[in-house]
Design brief:
This is DUF456 domain-containing protein. It holds the Pfam family DUF456. Keywords: Membrane, Transmembrane, Transmembrane helix. The chain crosses the membrane at residues 6-39, 51-74, 86-117, 129-160. With 161 residues, the protein is an all-alpha fold. It is built from 6 helices and no strands. It is elongated. The model has no long low-confidence stretch (mean pLDDT 91).
Length: 161
Protein backbone atom coordinates (compact mmCIF):
# COMPACT_ATOMS: atom_id res chain seq x y z
CA UNK A 1 0.00 0.00 0.00
CA UNK A 2 2.81 2.40 0.89
CA UNK A 3 4.44 1.84 -2.50
CA UNK A 4 1.21 2.70 -4.33
CA UNK A 5 0.83 5.88 -2.28
CA UNK A 6 4.45 6.81 -3.04
CA UNK A 7 3.97 6.27 -6.79
CA UNK A 8 0.76 8.33 -6.85
CA UNK A 9 2.35 11.10 -4.76
CA UNK A 10 5.38 11.29 -7.05
CA UNK A 11 3.09 11.28 -10.10
CA UNK A 12 1.18 14.23 -8.62
CA UNK A 13 4.43 16.10 -7.95
CA UNK A 14 5.67 15.49 -11.51
CA UNK A 15 2.24 16.50 -12.87
CA UNK A 16 2.56 19.71 -10.85
CA UNK A 17 5.79 20.64 -12.64
CA UNK A 18 4.24 19.91 -16.04
CA UNK A 19 1.00 21.59 -14.99
CA UNK A 20 2.67 24.90 -14.27
CA UNK A 21 3.41 25.15 -17.99
CA UNK A 22 -0.25 24.65 -18.89
CA UNK A 23 -2.66 27.47 -18.10
CA UNK A 24 -5.50 26.54 -15.75
CA UNK A 25 -3.69 23.48 -14.34
CA UNK A 26 -3.05 24.22 -10.66
CA UNK A 27 0.56 23.15 -10.20
CA UNK A 28 0.70 24.35 -6.61
CA UNK A 29 -2.42 22.40 -5.71
CA UNK A 30 -1.06 19.25 -7.36
CA UNK A 31 2.19 19.65 -5.40
CA UNK A 32 0.32 20.11 -2.16
CA UNK A 33 -1.90 17.11 -2.93
CA UNK A 34 1.11 14.88 -3.56
CA UNK A 35 2.78 16.00 -0.35
CA UNK A 36 -0.33 15.54 1.79
CA UNK A 37 -1.08 12.15 0.24
CA UNK A 38 2.40 10.83 0.95
CA UNK A 39 2.53 12.33 4.43
CA UNK A 40 -0.84 10.79 5.25
CA UNK A 41 0.16 7.44 3.69
CA UNK A 42 3.32 7.31 5.77
CA UNK A 43 1.40 7.85 8.99
CA UNK A 44 2.52 11.50 9.11
CA UNK A 45 6.15 10.50 9.53
CA UNK A 46 7.71 11.03 6.10
CA UNK A 47 8.85 13.52 5.14
CA UNK A 48 9.51 14.90 8.59
CA UNK A 49 7.28 17.62 9.98
CA UNK A 50 9.72 20.43 9.27
CA UNK A 51 10.31 19.26 5.70
CA UNK A 52 6.57 18.85 5.17
CA UNK A 53 5.80 22.36 6.44
CA UNK A 54 8.53 23.94 4.29
CA UNK A 55 7.49 22.03 1.15
CA UNK A 56 3.79 22.73 1.78
CA UNK A 57 4.59 26.44 2.20
CA UNK A 58 6.38 26.38 -1.18
CA UNK A 59 3.38 24.66 -2.76
CA UNK A 60 1.03 27.30 -1.28
CA UNK A 61 3.33 30.06 -2.51
CA UNK A 62 3.19 28.49 -5.98
CA UNK A 63 -0.59 28.46 -5.83
CA UNK A 64 -0.67 32.12 -4.78
CA UNK A 65 1.65 33.14 -7.60
CA UNK A 66 -0.46 31.19 -10.06
CA UNK A 67 -3.64 32.97 -9.02
CA UNK A 68 -2.30 36.48 -8.47
CA UNK A 69 1.02 36.89 -10.34
CA UNK A 70 -0.40 38.08 -13.64
CA UNK A 71 -2.91 40.39 -12.00
CA UNK A 72 -0.29 41.98 -9.78
CA UNK A 73 1.98 42.55 -12.78
CA UNK A 74 -0.88 44.10 -14.77
CA UNK A 75 -1.72 46.39 -11.85
CA UNK A 76 1.96 47.34 -11.53
CA UNK A 77 1.83 48.39 -15.18
CA UNK A 78 -1.18 50.59 -14.48
CA UNK A 79 -4.06 48.39 -15.69
CA UNK A 80 -7.32 48.53 -13.75
CA UNK A 81 -8.80 45.52 -11.97
CA UNK A 82 -11.64 45.51 -14.49
CA UNK A 83 -9.21 45.43 -17.40
CA UNK A 84 -7.23 42.66 -15.73
CA UNK A 85 -10.35 40.56 -15.13
CA UNK A 86 -11.69 40.99 -18.66
CA UNK A 87 -8.26 40.26 -20.14
CA UNK A 88 -8.02 37.03 -18.13
CA UNK A 89 -11.40 35.82 -19.44
CA UNK A 90 -10.58 36.72 -23.06
CA UNK A 91 -7.12 35.14 -22.79
CA UNK A 92 -8.56 31.89 -21.41
CA UNK A 93 -11.19 31.71 -24.14
CA UNK A 94 -8.57 32.31 -26.84
CA UNK A 95 -6.28 29.74 -25.24
CA UNK A 96 -9.02 27.12 -25.55
CA UNK A 97 -9.31 27.84 -29.27
CA UNK A 98 -5.70 28.61 -30.22
CA UNK A 99 -3.48 27.38 -27.39
CA UNK A 100 -0.85 29.23 -25.34
CA UNK A 101 -0.07 31.77 -28.06
CA UNK A 102 -3.74 32.79 -28.12
CA UNK A 103 -3.60 33.21 -24.37
CA UNK A 104 -0.69 35.63 -24.57
CA UNK A 105 -2.06 37.51 -27.59
CA UNK A 106 -5.50 37.73 -25.98
CA UNK A 107 -4.04 39.00 -22.72
CA UNK A 108 -1.83 41.60 -24.37
CA UNK A 109 -4.47 42.73 -26.87
CA UNK A 110 -7.28 42.99 -24.37
CA UNK A 111 -5.25 44.98 -21.85
CA UNK A 112 -3.97 47.25 -24.61
CA UNK A 113 -7.40 47.94 -26.15
CA UNK A 114 -9.28 48.38 -22.87
CA UNK A 115 -6.64 50.69 -21.45
CA UNK A 116 -6.73 52.84 -24.61
CA UNK A 117 -10.51 53.05 -24.38
CA UNK A 118 -10.36 54.01 -20.69
CA UNK A 119 -7.37 56.35 -20.72
CA UNK A 120 -6.73 57.36 -24.34
CA UNK A 121 -3.00 56.84 -23.74
CA UNK A 122 -1.20 54.58 -26.21
CA UNK A 123 2.09 54.57 -24.30
CA UNK A 124 0.43 53.79 -20.96
CA UNK A 125 -1.74 51.13 -22.57
CA UNK A 126 1.26 49.46 -24.17
CA UNK A 127 3.13 49.56 -20.85
CA UNK A 128 0.18 47.93 -19.04
CA UNK A 129 -0.13 45.24 -21.74
CA UNK A 130 3.60 44.47 -21.64
CA UNK A 131 3.60 44.30 -17.82
CA UNK A 132 0.62 41.94 -17.86
CA UNK A 133 2.12 39.65 -20.49
CA UNK A 134 5.62 39.58 -18.99
CA UNK A 135 4.06 39.11 -15.56
CA UNK A 136 2.24 35.98 -16.70
CA UNK A 137 5.42 34.60 -18.27
CA UNK A 138 7.51 35.42 -15.20
CA UNK A 139 4.83 33.93 -12.96
CA UNK A 140 5.02 30.71 -14.96
CA UNK A 141 8.81 30.58 -14.67
CA UNK A 142 8.64 31.08 -10.90
CA UNK A 143 5.96 28.39 -10.62
CA UNK A 144 8.13 25.92 -12.53
CA UNK A 145 11.09 26.64 -10.24
CA UNK A 146 8.96 26.28 -7.11
CA UNK A 147 7.29 23.02 -8.18
CA UNK A 148 10.65 21.54 -9.20
CA UNK A 149 11.98 22.58 -5.78
CA UNK A 150 9.05 20.88 -4.06
CA UNK A 151 9.57 17.72 -6.12
CA UNK A 152 13.31 17.57 -5.46
CA UNK A 153 12.90 18.53 -1.80
CA UNK A 154 10.30 15.80 -1.39
CA UNK A 155 12.48 13.15 -3.05
CA UNK A 156 15.48 14.08 -0.92
CA UNK A 157 13.60 14.33 2.37
CA UNK A 158 11.40 11.28 1.87
CA UNK A 159 13.84 8.86 0.29
CA UNK A 160 17.39 9.91 1.14
CA UNK A 161 17.09 10.82 4.80
Amino acid sequence: MVEVVAVVAIALLVAAVVGTLVPLVPGGLLSLSGLVLYWWGSGFTEPGTVAFVVLAALALLTLSIEFFGGSIAARAGGASWTTTGVAAVVAILLMIVTGPIGFLVGLFGTVFVLEIVQNDDITGSARSAVYATVGVLASTAVQVLLTVSVLLGFLVSAFLF
